[in-house]
Amino acid sequence: MELLPGFSKPSPSPDTKLECIRYRDRSCCKPGITNTFEENENFQNITIYNICPQKSSLSSACHREFFDELCFFLCSPNIGPWITEATHDAAPEKERFKDVPLCASECNRWWDACKHEFTCYVNWYNDVVRDANGLNICGPGQQCRRYDAIYNSSTNFCETIWDFSFKVTPDDQPCMKFGFDVNKPNPNIDVARRKVGVISACPPFSSVLYFLHFVCVVICILTMW
């Protein structure tokens, strides 16, 4: 997935210096991509997470959850089956993922860690207002409120915040985790393989769609092993 020039890789590869330790064996990103978030919760001058004046920084638990989610977004080699063209105006990203099945337990932990933070957006893709330097700001009429005053549930939060990049899924179904144990096999590999199998089994609607499906499946298979 092509995200940031200078930080995205054309294909997954090992990198022992990567800050996102879960993806050191196989990553789609290069070292340094999360540095600005770690330093001041400002992702590459694209997204400031602690945008509201009520708090100077995220809680440590919420910071950790957003860091893990950011690493998943930037570095995971297993989201190929859900990649689509980016259509929002958040600038350098050319591609995004959509409806990635996120385990409900993962969503609940993210929500519990962050529900007392503040924002002036509902959808952090489509509601964003930017200043002359491209930084996100609260625009006219956008009031800072706590997350739990904006989102009515953990599912609403996880699915809406990044414009339906995630689809909350029961844990007993194939679903992704961005906080998995680094000492155990990556559970997301099997989820992606299952999705590739579903895509390849779907009947195409035209020869063009058949070709696109075939290319997608081949790329996903080649980059998963």
UniProtKB/TrEMBL annotation:
GO terms for cellular component: external side of plasma membrane. InterPro entries: Folate_rcpt (IPR004269), Folate_rcpt-like (IPR018143). The keyword Transcription does not apply. It holds the Pfam family Folate_rec. One of its GO terms (molecular function) is signaling receptor activity. Residues 8-176 form the Folate receptor-like domain. Keywords: Disulfide bond, Signal. The keyword Flavoprotein does not apply. Belongs to the folate receptor family. This is Folate receptor alpha-like. It comes from Lingula anatina. The lineage of its organism: Eukaryota, Metazoa, Spiralia, Lophotrochozoa, Brachiopoda. The gene is LOC106175146.
